[in-house]
Amino acid sequence: MITGNLKALERALLHPVLEKVLREVVVSIEQWDGRPIGRVDVDGDRLFCLVQEDLTEPADERHGEFHQEYLDIQLLLSGREWIGVGPEQYRLEGLTHPHPDLWFVEVEQESWLALKPGDFAIFYPGELHRPLCTHGMPAPVRKLVVKVHKSLLA
Prior knowledge:
Elements: E1 2-5, H1 16-26, H2 29-33, E2 38-43, E3 47-55, E4 57-58, E5 64-66, E6 70-78, E7 81-85, E8 96-99, E9 102-105, E10 111-115, E11 119-123, E12 129-134, E13 140-149
Parallel strand pairs: 4-12
Antiparallel strand pairs: 1-11, 2-3, 3-13, 5-9, 6-11, 6-13, 7-10, 7-12, 8-9
């Protein structure tokens, strides 16, 4: 997992492909501000963006999740969001698997990232994360999730 802010990309020491995605595809919050909700294709199923609006929820109402084929770059566009991260170990047996590259996990322990607009978190395949959490009252958020197929980093 890597965290950072769009205004300080040089400090994140990103893989060149991920830095290019953030500089040339994501660019800025303003670039995505007026975009409609939904999928934006960049390179077919290898690289695409999901513009999302949702409500945060208490952590106990959210599932932990991970992916095996895609990296997630989760960029907060507006609002406040907490994302649970970890643990390193979890079992695959009996997991809910509602989409081809999405597994839900019951989280036993985790740490927390607090995101504000412009902050991003990058989750590599297999890294557990619990997005859209709040430690207060549910509130609206707008975010961009960039899906990067792991083959692009090979």
